[in-house]
Every structure is written in C-alpha cells, then in structure tokens.
C-alpha cells in the first residue's frame, strides 16, 4: 500500500487541502452518505467527491483516483483517532491563531462580514465553529504525522540513489525559476488613530471598574476573534510565550487587576491578570486594532526610498539591509529571500502560479536590480510598502542533481516520510475500529496496494 498523505513521486507535491471557502460553497451532485468510519470519525462520500473534483480542476499531473483519495482520508482519520489514544494535543492558541488568520483572509476577500454571510449562507458564528473544528483536525493530524516522522533524515547518498531510480524519460521539465528578496516596512497608525483606540479601551476599563463584566465586553468588542468568544481568556501561557510588551504588563499585575492600555505589534490591549501558577500565568484581554486600510504609507515609502539608494550605491548589501530593517519576520533572517511554500526553496517558478502582482513587478525588472517602493499587504492584512530585489533567474531545464539538489532532496525526504507513515499505518490500523462501505470495497484500503510508485 502506498499512502496518499505525502508526495508519491518526483515532481508531484501534495496539493493543498480544499480551502475553507471552497468547502463551504461546494455542492456535490451526488446523494451524500457515510462511506467510512475510523473509531468516532466519519468520512462522507461528498468529501471524496470534493477532493476528486479539486484535483481534476487543478491541472496537476498524476491526478489520484477516488480510491487513493479515500485512502488518504482514512489515514488522516486514523491519525486523529491515534492522537486521542496517544494524548497528542494541539494547543487552543495555535488553533485560534490559525482561525483568526483564515477569517482575516476571508474578510479581505469579501470586504465585509455581511458579504461573507451572503456568500456562504451561514452566520459568522457558525462559520467560525465549522472552521475551528476543521482546523483542529488538520493541525492534530499534522502534529501526529510530525511525531511519526520526527526521526526522518536524508543523506546525500540517499538523494543520489533516489534520483538515479527516476527513468530519464520521466524527468520533469522545470519552468524558469527566480530568486526574489524583499524588504517590508509596515504602515503605522497616526496619533489620532492611536488616541481613538486608547480612548475606547480606557472607557472599557472604567466600565469594568464600575461593575460591568470584562468577559461580556471582550465578547462584544475584542478583535481577537479566538479569545473574544471566550471572554478574552487566553488560557495559561508560559513565560516568554507572549510578545514582550503584553507579558511585561501582565506580570506587573495582581490577580484580577486591570492594566493600562498596552501597545504591541498586534494592536492595543486592555489586560486583566487572572492567575499565576509557577512559570505560567493566565490572562485575558480586549484587543483593538487600527483600520489597516486607512493607514498612511508615506513614512514607510520614504524610508524604503532611502534604503534603496543606499543599496544601489553599495553602501549596504540587500541581504544585510533586510536582516537589519525588514519588518517581515518570516524572511528577515534569510536576508529577505522569499520561499516557495511548495518546495521550501528560495527558487520560485516564474510562471502563472506566482502571485500576479509579484510576477508583473519582476517581469519588468532585470536581474540584480531593486524596485521602487510598492504597496504590499501582509498575510494578517496589514498595510505596508516593500522593495523587491531580483537576485537571480534560472532558465527552464530538465531536472538534474547539480541545479535542483534542494528540490530533489526535499522530495526524497518526503518519500522517506511516506514510507514511515505506511509502516505506521499497517501497525496502527489494528488499534482502532475501521469500517469501509461496500461501495468502496474494491479499493482495498486496508488490504493491498492502492497507489503504485
């Protein structure tokens, strides 16, 4: 049996799971029913059909069939069932952070909460509940998979052996690739915008001091979507886990005491300490953030213009400038270089899969140049400006070890992890109850090989 949960061969990276928006709007033409059960987890026929249609419309080579998709879903549910048995738990904060990020992406896409409700035909509260359940399962399965494959390592010799097994006529023809760096500077709220948020939080503080419920105010006004529905409660946090301004303010308080307004990279907080337990503390907060759509980008534009001049004069390298002044934490330590999320490489396909704004900006540049400041929107929706550095361009070519070692190494490692999960599955499937409907009995999910490499 060759499991669907990981990369199955060279050039075939695991497709992203069906997005929340697609799941919410997809309407399968077939009558739905339960086709598999793994302990207390169910798999619906519509889940298989949705993923099958997603793969079909993606244009990817080696599209899996329905049996392969069902097998991947069974493995996923088995991981969830075993996670319960082995006490593998994902922290609520991680789930909330991911949910907040997804909801913010939806808000950017649809503009307003009203538009989201109209698009999905569900109240925001219901959408959040559905999304949180889905994310909890995804993150738990991922954590279980990481536990299973934690010891996986790949050596140069194994990479070479893996590559030599690929028939010459099966080597993929890779498109042009580019290496791109950026330096990001965030737009900041002006004094009026800050004062407005501080004034609101101070008003909430006065209301709590006069007897109103902190929890109810957090539910009504906090822009931390995850903790807001729990009355602002962030649960117990280890020292060093929260951002410094928040933690410093929280630990100065006595239980049930309220802080002054605290500014952090996430916005403005009103904090209440609930308890301290050894090296852990429990706090709740009300978070307000500026309207990122209305922030002035004059200052980050001016700053980046000056930095661009210094780089062009060789007064500072782009790499050093990015490490010193970029406000994108994901790329800062890598000298500003962007990462292709599929391959985890700094070499990105220069084709239609690239984000359009980035593609057209680079298409008008020459290698070695730095762009003028251009508008940028961060993943969490913040307004910013950035300058781009066109570091290198690689022509299209057939895959080879010299030019593509990083990609080949990554795929070889994923194949190794796939084998580890396969061995784990063979043992773990006997620890839980698994039922497959007769409609899919020919898939032989629990018996033979469903996928061939």
**Could you state the order of secondary-structure elements as H and E?**
HEEHHHHHHEEHHHEHEEEHHHEHEEEHE
The CATH class designation of the largest domain is: Mainly Alpha
Report the helical percentage: 40-55%
Order of adjacent strands in the largest pleated sheet: 9-4-11-10
Oligomer: single chain
Low-confidence stretches: 1-30, 448-453
Kindly report how far apart the N and C termini lie. 10 Å
Number of continuous helical runs: 16
Look at the helices and sheets and give the structural class.
alpha+beta
Give a short account of the largest sheet: 4 strands, antiparallel
What is the typical, i.e. mean, pLDDT?
85
Could you name the CATH topology of the largest domain? Triger factor/SurA peptide-binding fold
Number of domains: 3
CATH architecture label of the largest domain: Orthogonal Bundle
- Please tally the β strands and state the result: 13
Q: In angstroms, what is the radius of gyration?
A: 25 Å
Strand content: 15-25%
Q: Could you explain the architecture of this structure?
A:
With 453 residues, this protein is α+β, with helices and mostly antiparallel strands. The protein has three domains: 20-165 and 400-443, Triger factor/SurA peptide-binding fold; 175-188 and 295-397, Chitinase A, domain 3 (Roll), CATH 3.10.50.40; 191-289, Roll (Chitinase A, domain 3), CATH 3.10.50. It has 16 helices and 13 strands. β1 (34-38) and β2 (41-44) form a beta hairpin. The longest helix has 28 residues, at 401-428. The protein is globular, with a radius of gyration of 25 Å. The termini are close together.
